[in-house]
Fold these 4 entries.
Entry 1:
Amino acid sequence: MIRNKALAGENSIVIIGAGMGGLSAAVLLAAHGLPVTIVERMAHPGGKLRTVDVGGYAIDAGPTVFTHRPVFERLFADAGARLDDHLTLVQSDRLARHAWADGSTLDLWADHARSRDAVAQFAGPAEAEGWTRFQAEAARIFRALETRFMESPAMGPLGLTLKYAPFHLHEMFAINPFATLWGALGNYFRDPRLRQLYGRYATYTGADPFQATATLMLIAHLEARGVWLVDGGMHEVARQMAALATRLGAKFHYNAHVSEILVRNGRAAGVKLASGEEIPAGDVLSNSDISAIADGRFGPAASRAVTGVKPHERSLSALVTLMTAEASGFEMDRHNVFFSTDYAAEFRQIFGERRLPVEPSIYICAQDRGITPPPPGLERFQLIVNAPPTGDGQPPTDEEMAQCQTATLAILARCGLNLKPHGMHPVGPKMFEALFPSSGGALYGRASHGWQASFRRPGSKTKLPGLWVASGSAHPGAGVPMAALSGRLASAAILKARASTRTFLPMATAGGMSTPKATAETMG
C-alpha cells in the first residue's frame, strides 16, 4: 500500500510511468520543490529501457544508442548535478558498421573527414561529394528545427511558420517536409546501398523510408554529432535518473498499476490503483502511450482528453531476439546493420501486407563490444527486425516468428556472420502490446508519414485540465532524447500553469539545494 499523506493536496503531482519522459519530468519537477510520486507497473524504472535475463546474462532489451548528449547534460545540470558524476559515457569512434549480401561493408565514423573518405572508397568520389552535400542539408534541417520545434511546445503549421517569420522563412522551407526521405536521398546518392543506408534512419522513428518525410534527414546529423556507449548498458541511464529524482525527494512505487485517472470538478485529481487505493494530486502526468488514455485504460472520464493513434497510423513494431551466442566470420562493432537485397519489398510487406518481411534487414547490438574487447566465447546480442504493429490484432504467430529468425540467421551468414546461439528470448508485437498497452506493439507512437504527422503528435497539455502527457508518442517524438525533451516540455507546462494560477510557490529542494525560478523560460 502507498501511504504518504504528505503527497495529498493540490501541490502534489502523480506521474504514471517511469519511462524516459516520466523520469525527465520527475527530475525537473522535484528539483523545483514539488512533491512528486511516480507510479510504475513494472518492477523497475525505464519503460522501454529495460533488461531481460537470458540464461543468466542481463541483456539490454530496448533502445541501444545514446545520442544528443546535451539534452541529458542540461537535465542533470538543472537538478544541480553533473551527468558525468552519474554515468560513464565513452564516445564511440565508429558510429556503425554496415554490410550487404554482396560482401561490401561500410563503416561510418564520428570523424567527418574519415566518414567521407570511407564513402569515397566504398562508392567513388562522386558519391562522397553527394555525401558531403547530404550531411550539410541534414545539419541545416536540424538547426532549423532544434529550438523552434523540437525544444518548443507543440504547435501547428501556422505556429511554426510564425516562428520563422518574417526574416527566416527560407530556413523553414529548408526542412523539406513535402518530399519523402527515399525520394530526397536520390538527390545525393546514385548508389542504391547508400540510399538504403540513409533510408534506414526513418526507422529510428518507426517510419517507412518510402513514406517518411525528408525532414528525417536530421537524424543523420544528430548521430554524426556523436554516439556514446553507456557503461553498464542503456538501462543505467534510467536507473541514474530515477536515483537523482529520488535524491530530490520524488517517491517511486513499482509493481503498482493505475486503473483510473480520477476526475473531480472537471479536472484530473489523482489516480486510483488496481488495489483500490487512491492517490490525490493537483496534476497528473501520463507517461503511457497516448492511445492508452484514449482507449479508456485509465477510465472513461480521461479518455476524451486526447486523440489516440489509429492502427493504420502506427509506427513500426519489431521482432527482437535477445541472444547469447558464439560469433565468427564477421568482425562486428557495437552497432551493426545487415541489409536486405530488396528494401522496397521489405517495407511493403510490413506496412502494406502487415506481416513480417520475408527477407529482413537486421540490426545487431553486440553489447559486449565497444568499451572493452569482447570476451572469448559467449557474447550478448540484441537482434532487431522491423515488424508490423499488429500486437492487438493479428500478430505474427510463433511459427512465423521462428521462420523470420531462421531467415535472419541465413541473411547474416550470407554477409559472413555466423551466430551459434546458446540462449534465445524473442519478443514480438504481441508481447510489446502487453508491455505497452494500446500501442499494438508500435514502439514509436505515430509513424512520421507525410508532412502533417509531426504536427499531429499531442503536446503536453490535454483537453482535461490537470492532465498532462510526456512520452515518445507525444511531441517532439520518438527516441530516448526526444522522450526526455517531452518530459522537459511537460514539466515546463505544469510549472507555467501553476504560476499563472498562483497555486504554486517555489520551495527548497531536498538536501537544501537552491532552486531556479519556476518559469517556462528556465525549463526550456
Entry 2:
Amino acid sequence: MRYLIIFLFFVLNTFGTFAQTNAYTISFENAVHHEANITASFVGVAEDTLSLRMSRTSPGRYALHEFAKNVYNFKATDSKGNSLKITRTTPYEWNVSGHDGTVKITYTLYANRGDGTYSQIDETHAHLNIPATFLYAPSLKDRKIEVDFKTRDDLKWKVATQLPHVNNNTYSAPNLYYFMDSPTELSNHKVREFTVDGQIIKLALHDPGTEEEADQYFEKVKKVVLAEKEVFGELPTFDYGSYTFLACYIPNASGDGMEHKNSTILTSTRTLANGGMDGNIGTVSHEFFHSWNVERIRPKSLEPFNFEEANMSGELWFAEGFTSYYTNLILCKAGLITPKKYVEGLTGTFNYVWNSPARQFFNPIEMSYQAPFVDAATSVDPVNRENTFISYYSYGSVLGLALDLSLRESGLNLDDFMKLVWTTYGKSENSYTIENLNKTLNTYAGEDFGNNFFNSFIYKSEMPNYNELFKTVGLSVSQNKEAAYFGAAVSITDDLNGKIRSNTKIGSPAYIAGLDKGDIITAINGEKFPNGIQFHKFIENEFKPNDNLSITFLRDGLERKTEVTLTADPKYTISLIEKNEEAPSKKILKARKEWLKVE
C-alpha cells in the first residue's frame, strides 16, 4: 500500500505539472499612446530560476527581430505578491528567482507597426502578432496557454483569431508553438464566412468601408479560395475546422501579408474604397496558397521553427517563389484579372531576374539562404544587393512559370506536380528537402526531365529558354533595340542635377564608366538636364545605343569626369501575340486556355 501511495502521488504530481496552464491577460487602457499592459501567471514552476524571454523571430519571417526592445516596466512577484529577484544575462531574457512555485509578471508593451511581423496598438485596433507581444517561458513550452483579451468596449472591439474560444474574451492554445502562430486582431471589424467541404473560411475585415464593399470583396476572396482548392484538389484540414483571414486595411497600417497555419495577416494602407478592392486581393491569393505550400508542404530546414535564432532555408525559391508564381495566375484562373493583364504583368519580374548580374554569384538555393539578411531585416552599413541578390520570391516565380510551361509541352502541368508534392509531403505534414522535390519531379515527369530541371536551374543558375516556352502559349518577348540604356537609377534634383540612387549594375554602361551610388551628375556633354523630364526618358529621347556621353559629376564634393558608352536597353516586353496582330493557332489557343483556365 505504501508503494502504491507513492506511485499515485508521483503520477498525480506529474500529471498536474503537465496539466498546468500559463495564463495571460492583456489590456489597452493607454491605447492612444500605443501601450498594452500585460500580465502572466506561471504556476507549478519546478526550477529555481524561471527564464522568461521575448522571441527574436516570428513564424513566416526568417530574419531576427528584437521584439524585447519594446518591453519595459517589467515586474515579478510570487503567489503572495512578494517581489522576486530579476537578473538579465541577454537583452531578450529576464531570469526570475526566489519564487514559491508561482511566478507572476507584469510589463508594458509599446507597439506601433501594423503588419505581419510586429504589433500595433492605438484607438483603431490592437493588431497583435503574438511573438512581438507576449513574453514566454521556454521551459514551459508544452503547457496549455489561455489569454484573456480585455477589449475596449467603448471602441466596439471584438476578437478575431485562429485560437480556439474558451469563454467571453478568453482564448486558448495547446502549446507555445500554436500560440506563437496565432495572430489576433481586436477591432470593430466586419465578419464574413462561408463553408467549403465542412470547413469554415472566415474574413475578419477591419476597413472603414460599407457593408456592401465588404460583401463585394468577400466574393473575390471566395473565388480565390475555390481556385486554389482546385490546384491541390482539396483544402488542408484546418485545426478546429476553420481558417481566418485577418484583413486590416486602414491608413495607419503597413502593407504586408503573413501566413500562419490556420490564418493569415493581411495589412494595407489601401482601404477597399481607395484602391484596395483590386489592389489587396493579390495578397489574399499569395497567403492562402501558403496554407498548403510552406505551412504543410514544409521545408525540413524550418522544422522546428526557432524563436531564438534566425531561420535559414534553401527551399524558399519553392516555398515562397512557386507561391508567387501562383499568386496572379490564380487571380487569372478565378476571373479576377484578364489574361492580358496577367501576361503583361510577368514583364517586371522576368526582367528583374533575367537581367540581374546576381546569378553569377548565387543559385536559387543560395539566394534562399540570404533570407535572414533581407526578409524585413535592417542594417546600417551599405550593401550590394543590386548586384548580388535576386529575391527568392521572384526567382522562384519565373522558374515556376518555366516549369509549368515545360511540363505542358509534354501533356503535364505544374498543378498536378503540386498535387503530388501535397499528397506525398503536405497532407501528412512530413517535411521535405530539396532532394525530395527533385525525386518527386522525377517521379512525375521522368528522371531525365526532373534531373535536367534541377541540375540546370536549381543547383546551377542557368535560365530556361523562355522564348520557346512562351511561343507554346502564344506569348511574344521583344526588346527595343533602338532604346538607349545608361544603367543607373538617377533622380533629378531641384537644381537639375542627377543623383545616382543605388549601386550601378555590374556590366552596365554606368558601371563600366566608374559611376557609383551617391554620385551627382551635373552635366552630360556639357549641358544641364532639361526641366520636367525623368532621367531615363531623357536618355531614351535624346540618345541612341553606342552614343558616347561626356559625364561631369560630383563625388564627395569634388568634380570629376568620365565617358559613358550607351548600349541597347536590355529590358524585355512580354505580351499576347495578338497585340502584335498575330493570330494564334487553335493549338496555341487550346494550350493557353488549359494554362490560364480561360475561354
Entry 3:
Amino acid sequence: MALAGSLTASSEAQPPTSGVQGASWWANAVLRRMSLEEKVGQLFVTYAYGSGADSRHPKNQAEFGVDTPAEVVRRYHLGGVIYFSWTDSLADPKQVAGLSNGLQRAALTSGAGVPLLISTDQEHGVVARFGPPATQFPGNMALGATRSPDVARKAARIAGAELRAVGVNQNYAPVADVNTNPANPVIGVRSFSSDPELAARMVAAQVRGYEGEGRPERGVSATVKHFPGHGDTNVDSHSGLPVIHHDREQWRRLDAPPFRAAIDQGADMIMSAHIVVPKLDDSQEPATVSRKVLTGILREELGFRGVVITDSLQMDAVRKRYPDAELAVRALEAGADQLLMPQNLRAAYDGVLAAVRDGRLSERRIDESVRRVLTMKYNRGITRHPFVDETAVDRKVGTREHLAAAQEIADRTTTALRNDDNLLPLRDKPGRVLVTGWGEATTTALAEKISARGPATTRLATGAKPNPKAIDEAVAAAGNHDLTVVLTSRAWDDAPQQELVRRLAESGRPVVAVAVRDPYDAAYVEQARTWLTTYSHSQAAMESLTKVLFGETSPRGKLPVTVPVPGKPDTARFPFGHGLSW
C-alpha cells in the first residue's frame, strides 16, 4: 500500500514559513516538547535485525533487549537507523521500502513523533550495501579516472534517487579522503584521487548529486567522510589506531580541500575518522573524541554548521580505548552530534543520560546537537515526506535508463597502463581465451562477456592467494589458449598473485593483466607487458573491459593517482594522469 502522506510528524509543530526560518521554527518547536530521553535518542544511529519493522529476531533481544526493529526505534527514541545485508535489511527494493515505512511509522507514533534518518553505506565500487537490481556505479577512483565532475554528479544523483525511492534518506558517501598513501589498507579505491584538487571537485559534485540538486525530497543527505582525512595511513582503523603525521600546513594542502569543497556545497553531514593526527591535536586522542579537531578545526576553522557523526563506535581504533558509555560522552564533548553504532547501545545511551543528569554534559549542549539533527531532517524533506510509495519502487530502482547510464560511465573509466607489445586492441578474434586469477564471480562475469563475442572461453579462478598447484594449473592452461586474461585484486600486497602474473607473462603466450581494484598492482610485475586497470569488479566494469579488449571502445580513463615504483614512493612508475588509448 502507498503510505506517502498518510502520517506526518506532529501537526501542531508544522511551521508557518519555509526555508531557513521554517526549519528553525519547526526544530525549536519540537525540541521544546521533547523529554531528555527523547533528545538523547536523536543522537544515536544503529542497526536492528529483521527484514520488516515487526520481524522478531533473537539478535535484537540479545543486543537491545527487545524483539523487533520497530521496538528498538521506540525504546531508544532513535534518531536514525542504518541498513546492512547482514541485518537482513537489504533483501530487495520492495522489502527495503516496506521496512523503511514500518520504521518511520514506529518513530512517528511514539515519543516526540520525529521521523528517522535511514541510512546505508552506498559508496559504490567496493563498498555498496544495496545490491542489484539497484543500479551499481563505478567506485570513486574509477570516477576519478574520468576526470569529469559531471559524471560524478550524475552517478550520485541517480544513486540518491534510488535510495530515496526505498526510504533511505541519508547515504554515508562520498569519501573525501585523499589517497596519498598507496599502501592504505582501508581507503584505496574508495578515494577519488591522490590529488587534493581533483578529489575536491569530485566530492563537491557528488554532494550536489546526492542531495538532489536543489530538490531535497528527491535526494539523500550526503555524509562526507572521514574527517580530518584518512588517506595517508597504512593502518586500518577497524583493527588498529592510525597515526597521520601531517602538520597543519600539510593538512590544509593535502587533506582539507575536499572537505572545504563539500562544506561550500552545503553538505548535510560530515563523519569523523578514528585517527590520531598529533600535529592537529597533541593530546594523542583520536579525532572522534578530539575537541580541537571536531570543534576547533571543523566547526570554527572550516565553518561547518551541519551534523557531525562519528564513524562506527564498534571499531577497535576507539572502542579499545574507552568503555562504550565513556566513548559516547567523550565524542559529544568533542563536538559530535550523532553517535554511530555503539557496541552496547544501552550502555552508551544510559551513559549520556547520566552525564547530563550529573552535570558533565549540559542539556544545552544536547539541545545544540538535537537542533542540528532536526533541522537537517526538515531541510531534507523527511518531516514532510517520511514515507515512500511501495508500489512505485520497480519504476524507480534499477531502471533501463539508470543501468545504461552506469554502463556509459563505466566505459569512461577503464585505463590502459601498458601495451608494450601492441597486443591490444585484439586485431584478430582469438579462438580460445583463458580467464584466470582473482575472484570467482568476477572471472565468471568476464568469461561470459568474452564468450558472448565468439571465442571459446575457459574460466579458471585461482583465488586471492593462489597456491603453487593453482599457479601451475593456470600456466599449463594458458599454453592451450590463444589469449590469457589474468585478474588481480590488491596484488601489491599479495606475493602469490604477483607470482601468478609473473609465471603467465613468462610462459611465452599472449597475456593481458588487469587490476580490477587497485591500479598499484601494475607496478609489481614488470614481466607483464600489457596492463589495464578497471578500479572495480562490477558487471559494468567487466563489460567495459571486454569492449576495450576487442576494440569496441578505446580506453578513456586517466590515472587519478600516481603509481610508484615498489619501495620507492617518490618515484613514479605510472604518473598521475597516465593512460594510453588507441
Entry 4:
Amino acid sequence: MSAHGAASAGPLARWAQRLTRDKADTLLLLAAALLVLAPHFGHLPPWTSAVICCVLLWRGAITLRGRRMPPLWLLLPVSLLAMGGVYLSFRTLLGRDAGVAMLALLLAFKLLEMHARRDLFVVIFLSFFLLLTNFFYSQSIFTGLCMVATIIVLLATLMTFQYTGAVPPLRQRLLVAGKIFLAAAPLAVVLFFAFPRIQGPLWGLPGDARSARSGISDTMSPGSMTGLALSDEVAYRVRFFGPLPPQNQLYWRGIVLSNYDGSTWTRTERPRYRAGESNSRASVLGEPLRHEVTMEPTGKRWLFALELTNPNLPMPGLGAGLSDEFEFISREPVHQRLRYQASAYLSYRLQPSLDGAQLARALRLPDGYNPRTLALAATLRQPGGPADSAQAVLRMFRTQQFSYTLEPPLLGRNAVDDFLFGSKAGFCEHYAGAFVVLMRAMGVPARVVTGYQGGELNPVDGYLTVRQSDAHAWAEIWAEGQGWLRVDPTSAVAPERINQGLGRALPQQAPFGLTGLDGLMNFANDSNSWLAKLRFRALAVNNAWNQWVLDYNPDRQSSFLAELSGAFGNWRSGAALAASALLALAMLQLRKRRALVPPDPVDAVYAAFCRIMARRGMARAPHEGPHSYARRLQAMAGQEDKKEAMLAFLELYGALKYAAPADEITAPAKRLAILLKRIQ
C-alpha cells in the first residue's frame, strides 16, 4: 500500500496490516466461527453461549499474544464438564437441542486444540455442518441470506489457508468466494427441484417433532386466550379465489366446547367421520367462497375453516375427519406447514334437529356454581324464543358499562357471577362463557366455539394473514327448525373487534407511558403510510418464500415433475434435456475459465518443441519430464547434428520452469528468445 493509502486507512485497518500472516489467518477463522455460532445463542442455554464466548476470547488472546495452546490435561476436564452441563440442561445427550448444543461446544473447544493442518479442515467442515442446523429453528428468508453470507466467509477462510505466497486482500478473497458460491448455485437449484423430497422434518426424533407450539387449546377458562392476543405469530394465511368477504363474516371455526365444570370449558370426545360419511344434516345456500389455507405447524390435529365450510367436501385431498359438532380434524398432528383448499358458504342451516343426547349436552350446567347468574337468567328470559332471549343478554352487555380488556381482574370460584356482577371487564372468553351459561340457564341449548376472527389483508400479494392475536371465542344457540345460530357477545361490547380487528378495539397506549409517541404509533397503524407499505412488502416477500420454497413438499414436487415431463413428452426426454443443459452449462463455464487464464509462454514454446520432435519420430512420453526426456534423446541414435541443441533446449527449459531464474534471463522476452534459438 502506498504511503497515502496507509495514512488514509482507519486505525483498525492499520492494526490488521501489522499482524503476521498466521495471526491474521487465525483471527479470520475465529470471525467465521463466530458467524456460525452466534445465531444459536438465542435458543441455547445462557451458560452455553457464555462458555462459547469465553472460549473464543481465550483463543483470540492466545493468538494475539503468541502463547501456546492449552494442554490436553486442561481441555479434557473442561470439555467433560461442558458435556455434563448439556445433559443437566436437556436431560439427554440425544435429540435436536442437545445435539446442537454439543456441536456448538465441540466447535469452540476444537479451536483450542489446533496443532496441524488437518485440525483446520476439521474446524471448517464442522462449521459447515453446524451452520446447517440453523434451519432446525428458523427457515425464514432472512435466515437463508445470513447463511449465504456465512458460507462465503467460510469459503474465503478456507482459501486463505491455501495460499503459499502473497495473500490477496480480504475483499478480493470474499469476491472469489462469492463467485465460487454462484458457480455452485445452478446445481443447487436443480437438486432442490429434482432431488426426492422426504415427508416431515429430517431431524424428526419423536421428542423434537412434537415439541409444544402456541395455538388455540381444546380447553377455555377466564384469561386463557389473553396470551394469544399478545402474540403476533402467524396462524395461517388465506388466498381467496374471488372477492374477500367482509371482516365481520370472517369466522374461522375451530374447536367446539360443550362441557363446563364451573371454571373450565372442555371439548366432548366424539366420533370422527370421513367427509361424506356422517349424517351432517347441514344445508348450504348461495355461491361458495373458494379459498386456500396455508396453516403453520401447531402440533395439534385441529384444522381451521371459514364458517361454514361445506362438510360434504371440506378439504379435497386432505382426508380430514369431521365430528358431529362440525370440527375438522386431521389424521395426525400438524407438525409441518399444511396447505389445503376449501369451499365455504356464509348462508347455511346447521343441524335443524338434535337427538336427546345432544340436547342434554348443550343444556348441562354444574351444580352449586354461579347462583346469581342463574337468578339473572330467569329475569332475562323472553317468551318469544331463543333469539329474543339472546338479544336480551346482548342488550345487557351493551347498556350496563361492560368493558373489553386484555387485563381483566382475577375471578373466584363463581367466575361468571364475579364477572357479571363485579368486574364487568373481560376478554372474548369471558363474554362467550357467560353468555352460554345464561342461555343454558334459560333452557336454550348453547355451546362455545373457539377459533379465529378476522385477519389482515396484504394489498401487495392479496393474502389474508390470520395471527394468533386474532384468536376468538363466540357462542352458538340452537333453535328448533333453524339449527345452530352464531351469536358473538363480544360484538355487543366491542363491535370494533369484529369489524376492524383487535388492534382497533383496544385502547392505544404508548410504551413506557411516553404519550408523545402516540402519533408515531398511529402512523405505523395507518395502512396508507409508507411504513405500513414497507411492512406489507416485507410480509409479501416472506409469504412468497413460504409458498414457493418452504412449502415445496413431495406432493408439489410430484405435480411439478409431472407437468415438466408432460411438457417434454415424457420423463426420459425431460431428464435428457436437463442433463444436456447442465452439460452445456458446465462446458461454457470451463471454456470461460480457460479463456480467462492466459497460457504460459514458456510452456507454449515447450509444446512447440515437443510437436517438432514428434514429427521427427522422437515423441515425448506422457510421464517424462524434461530431464528424463533429455536422457532418452541422448541415448538414441541419429540426429547427431541437432542432438546438442535438443539437450541444451531441455536443460534450459527445466531451469526456467523448475529452478530459480538467473539474473540475465529474468525477463520473459529473453527466455523466449533463448528457447527459440535452441529450436531453430
